[in-house]
Amino acid sequence: MKNLLFKKANNLINTKRCLVGIIGLGYVGLPISILFVKNNFKIIGFDINKKKIAKIKKNESYIDRISSKDIELINKNGNFYSNFSHIKKCDVIIICVPTPLKNNEKPDLSCIKTTINSIKKYLKKGQILILESTSYPGTTEEEIYQKIKNNFKVGENFFLGFSSERINPGKNENSIQRIPKVVSGYSKPCLEIISKFYKKYFSKVYKAESLLIAEFSKLLENVYRSVNIGFINEMKIVADKMGIDVFKIIEAANTKPYGFRRFWPGPGIGGHCIPIDPLFLNFAAKKFGYNSEFVKLSSEVNFKTVKFVENKVTSFLKKNDIKFPSAKILCLGLAYKKNLDDYRESASLRLFDLLNKKRITKIKFYDPYFSKNNVPKRVNLIKKLSSKKLLNFDLVILLTDHDCFDYNFIYKNSKKIIDCRGRFSISEKVVRG
User: Fold this and answer.
1) Would you tell me how many other CB atoms lie within 10 Å of the CB of residue 132?
2) Is there a single domain that holds both residue 312 and residue 395?
3) pTM score, whole prediction
4) Domain range for 157
5) Among 90, 190, 273, 331, the one annotated catalytic
6) I want to staple 430 with a disulfide (CB 3.0 to 4.6 A). Which of 57, 257, 292, 424 is the partner?
7) Residues 73, 208 within the same domain
8) Is 273 a catalytic residue?
């Protein structure tokens, strides 16, 4: 027979009277907050970044793809704080904080740890706590269960689980409810109550048998992409050595209706998931005495691709007797992928730093998705392209192929282009990068 706390939580979910707390209002937490509100849940948002809280309270969006109307909506149906005392009011708590890597390529779980330490004293019986931050298998058990097990009987008077986020920045922030949701729980009652909660606003929920399976599945999804991107990036380098256009090769191979899935090469990898998750998985594998060499190799190839582009730049400058310190270069695109205002782990910034080390410092960026106040200080951003400006650069590098770029104009007014995205046909003016 279900206990009273389970029944109470179940009733709150069924009647949509549960108060949902979202910790971390970034690229995951903010779209989820909007989804909850649109499904008639009341929310409380938490973020230690006071600027984000201030913007929300002013009905201002700080993510390009999210409208100010949606911010106004969550403002009407929620409250937002930079401290955690209001956690005690929440029936469901979802953690969506960043999980980057340390300089030694080990997972940095400091945000999860800080969050748990900050909210622990406000947790109460009957609450549901769900981790959505990506990490290695075992994180929910090690970093949350172990920290709260002395205060609660998890599965009886407190419910704990993990559910992987599947937000594709720039693509599905406004339709995440249509993406199948993988959920898991510390125990069967935890899984039951958590899956019921997510079913209220996701069209399909998949129940993983354990926390470990759900955590691993998230890494598998992104490592799969990393491996395939690493493969196609290496094929680009091989094709370049042979003097063949890799994009034409892919176009031909893609006519096969089975056994082949197209991936595009680029200047490297970026974003939170693809550069980081392979190293999370390798870290977890090493804990069990295994070095996942194939996974690590794909990551290394993707980072090496930036070096390939750097060599293209330096070779061009040497061939044309342009001294590195006087070379004028325009980088098209700061974002890690097209049509997005996100430069996390961007290959564009990695290339910028590599070139700077070679004393190639006269580098400017053009990316309409950013303004001077939301890019790193070291980035020199120009507001508008003109024929005069383009012709002033010795070299133009296409790093992010935003659809809003006028590619005909860029081609016509550039002296030389290194195209890392296959937007231009190879010619005397254009080479692949």
Assistant:
1) 22
2) yes
3) 0.90
4) 4-219
5) 273
6) 424
7) yes
8) yes
